[in-house]
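Hi,

I'm pasting everything inline rather than attaching a file, because the server keeps stripping attachments. The sequence lines come first, and each chain or strand is labelled.
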Amino acid sequence: MIKNLAPKLTDAEYEKNFADINPPFAPHNSKMEANRCLYCFDAPCTRACPTHIDIPAFIKKIASGNMRGSAKEIIDANILGMSCGRICPVDSLCEGACVYNERDTEAIEIGRLQRYSIDWFYENWDKTKHMFKAGKANGKKVACIGGGPSSLSAAFYLAQLGYAVTIYDKNDKPGGLNTYGIARYKMSAAEALKEVKLVEHVGVKFKQKCEIGKDVAIDKLTKDNDAIFVGVGLGETEDLGIPGEDLSGVVDAITFIDELKHKKLRDVRIGRRVAVIGAGNTSVDAATQSKRLGAEMVMVLYRRSEEEMPAYEYEYEIAKKDGCVYYFLTAPKRIVGKGAVEGIECVRMKLGEPDASGRPSPEPIAGSEFILECDMVIKSLGQKKRGDFAKKVLGLKTDGRGRITVDEITMQTSKPKFYAGGDCVNGGREVVNAVAHGKRAAWAIHKKLSGEDVDLDGLWKNETIRRKASTAEHQYA
Amino acid sequence: MADLSINCGGIKSPNPFWLASAPPTNSGAQIQRAFDLGWGGAVWKTLGETIINVNSRFWSLDYGPTRMMGFNNIELITARPWDTNIREIIETKKKYPKNAIIVSLMIESKRESWQKAVKEVNDTGCDGIELNFGCPHGMSERGMGSAVGQVPEYTKMITEWVKEVAEVPVLVKLTPNISNVAVVGRAAAAGKADGISLINTVNSIMGINLDNFAPYPSVDGKGSHGGYCGPAVKPIALNMVSTIAKDAEIGIPISGIGGIATWQDAVEFMLLGASSVQVCTAVMHYGYRIVEDMIDGLSNWMDEKGYKKCTDFIGKALPNIKDWSDLNLNYKLVARINSDLCIGCELCHVAAWDGSHQCIDLEMGNGHRVPVINDPECVGCNLCMLVCPVDGCIQMVEVPTGKKPMSWHQYQAELAKNPKCEPPGYIEH
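And the predicted assembly:
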């Protein structure tokens, strides 16, 4: 129950508020933009991309009208190229590395060009799907635990090498956070599922609503497979650990975003005044979408200052433009209300000495408590690590922060047959990082099981080209 | 996947993409690197007498933000010793037996000198020889390069000398700096050349410095005419390739050269009769790696069109290249402007008003001025569509007239029978 519900919007308003935030290029503009690319050698954009897509190459192929080749260039390096074209923090990755930044010129719109290429691929599915197919069966089996980006990636590349791959996923639908956790104005679930279809197309089997340790015993899984990839992501949102957390109207950001993706917008209940706790990228998704659903006031509470805020600059800008109000140096102390949320008591903070994370530690200012009236509280403090599952069910070593310990290059865990990647390894980063992990694990699994060293990574390809071109040695970022 | 392999006058290569004789083929190490990245063949930087080069050798024509739309050079043939090149040719061919290596030669116009050079080249294992009768600068002043290619008799004579001793196919590379390229093409064919490469570079002066009046590229304040190439020369090259391909007296295979930068460019040359294509400027701009998209793009295009091998489409556009007098005078086009796409720049209006047939008026619509075609005045020239910055905003649409096709030639024949027959086409105001 929510005390004061925000009034419903008109259908037109919902449509406008949740329309594509970064609409696709028209063909004419894509060509103009593609021709602006300098086609750098050993390009910084490619180096900045965790999956090392050969960006100048795919852009040149758009310019030359070789759309098929362009899409292949991307998907060969990144099976979730369509998602990444929409949701990657490009300012911090490829576009941020574009050499045009160095001469004060607009960077090439790499994300939108990538989207243009991959949208073409899926729009022409019947003509293009044959570009990818299952490899000749080699009799070996691989299981992927978890259905998110890293598993999709490992499965896609392994299936093309001839492995029989099965993805075990506890959710109803495959795709993990890509299907469930992306803000609706960035990408719809239906779009995310197109990429799942391509993974299925190369022969990967999906077992949905299937939990390892419950529906399938880990011993049997280990025995039946030649290698196992663990891409179980993260758990539930962290608790606030303050009184009133159980009041009606307190929700966590992941559940809220998921609800938005699978319900009619009109059916999502939103308070008149919403407080979002935490200031990461997920918090921006929750705050902006609350505003777009019709909340009159959205307040984002963060205990440190703007400087330390984890959200990307680009995301923060969206929230500000949507009219979300940021309360920095503000920590929640208690949620107040009778049965349902009526307000949140906060305390002012000041920054002290750096803590273990290297950021200045916030300290409460005594006597500075105040109450913000609100009807809904959205918790967005990051997600719990799945260290317990990894340790107890899978028997894998984890680090002090609950992340699965792996070899940085091969993604191999403490149990030689097990590999891992994505959020359960890095603690929660981008889809593109998860795809890179999955691909690298696929390469290592294949190398171990077949002895063959295939080029699964743009990194490798570029290195080959670079070596052949006899240029000076570089270090990869 | 389609089979991209080709045979150009007896020279075989795994794909039609060859590096032209130029700085990118200056050494064995370079060519081997290029083969690793996918190039099907390479024409070695021209061998000949020892030369000395000037400093400052290249210049480019930039157009708006586009760099190197046209490119020029005053570099001479290889500056490396004859023996070094020969040694590296042998070594490269041994390492890359499937790729085509063609040795380009430019020798003083004496029978003994040419034949001595050809005999040495015979023994390298190379796949062919290309006679450089094309370079317009430097060497031409010494009676070589285009000085040969501009005189059909010399072209035929030297080709014959070479053919007397050559043990591999011989391509003759033609200069575009001549009024009718077919005349020299016929001379090469008469000299028993196995194929023709064209075009070599176009004579050019790239520009003048407005402060010191030095031409570009400048050598100590002075300059000389040089060879022009790059995307800007492609239309000239396409015309010359089709001229050679259509000439009944020539009838030998063609290696197309001139401004090729993408697979699409290559397909155009091949549609006009080239069995291989040669690339230089685009490689000098972006490196050997461009061949990856050329191969990939060509292969995808062939798959899409259902062509299994290159010979399925080589020359397919030639029947469409006609004399003007054979074009249908009763074919009528008018421009159609989609006002929803119009952004209001009015370039079509001013272009038509000042530069063509005053057939686009401006009328009020949707609260701003929109260009409107005045149909009876439109001569279907394409100019408005060409200047329009929005793709698809102006389209040329055929207007059925009910008249049967009639060319100038047909009209002349008709007139001979009936002096009062109705002329084809339309009255222009």
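Chain A touches chain B at residues 27-28, 36, 39, 41, 57, 60-61, 63-66, 68-69, 72, 465, 468-470 (CB under 8 Å).

If the labels don't parse on your end, tell me and I'll reformat.
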